[in-house]
Specification:
Layout: H1 2-42, H2 45-50, E1 52-60, E2 65-68, H3 69-75, H4 77-84, E3 89-101, E4 105-117, E5 123-137, E6 140-151, H5 154-159
Parallel strand pairs: 1-6
Antiparallel strand pairs: 1-2, 3-4, 4-5, 5-6
Length: 161
């Protein structure tokens, strides 16, 4: 009788293991996205780059651009410096519509909201559909690819909560 009672319990524990693993990976990925947001808000280009694999690629299908993430940071160095030095304010927030992952790889799909206020008071907000491919290397999640696909609408942003 003890065996019969323990079998359903064992099956329920075994079936929960993948959900717990997914939740753990998602929490780790959330920490990476928090680092990205913090780097943008503080103008810390080194922190930003630390969230990417050294050979990571940036693609903006909306603007017809492809280059390494390091090249993209250099192309925008003035904006990073303005934020770091307090001459501008920037923020980024992420919402996800699909999160596929296992213990060592992930594909994230969603929308990010990027806001900037320049020293002259000019404010710009962009909502952008994006995809990211990530790998866990030596215990650290790193982005391999950032693909910005198209502009998003406010309705799409709200739906992605």
């Amino acid at each position: 009788m003890l065996r019969r009672a323990s079998t359903p319990l064992l099956l329920s524990i075994v079936s929960l293991a993948p959900l717990q693993a997914h939740a753990q990976v998602t929490a780790e990925l959330d920490a990476l996205w928090a680092d990205v947001a913090r780097s943008v808000a503080t103008g810390d280009a080194d922190l930003y780059l630390s969230t990417y694999h050294p050979d990571a690629i940036f693609v903006s299908a909306r603007r017809g651009i492809t280059r390494t993430v390091a090249e993209d940071v250099e192309a925008n160095r003035a904006a990073w410096n303005d934020t770091r030095d307090g001459r501008a304010r920037r923020s980024v927030e992420f919402r996800f519509t699909e999160r596929l992952n296992n213990a060592t790889s992930a594909h994230e799909v969603g929308i990010f909201r990027y806001a900037s206020t320049e020293s002259d008071g000019t404010t710009r907000v962009a909502l952008i559909h994006f995809e990211a491919a990530l790998v866990k290397k030596d215990g650290v999640w790193l982005q391999l690819l950032e693909l910005q696909t198209s502009d998003a609408t406010t309705a799409e942003w709200e739906a992605a909560r």
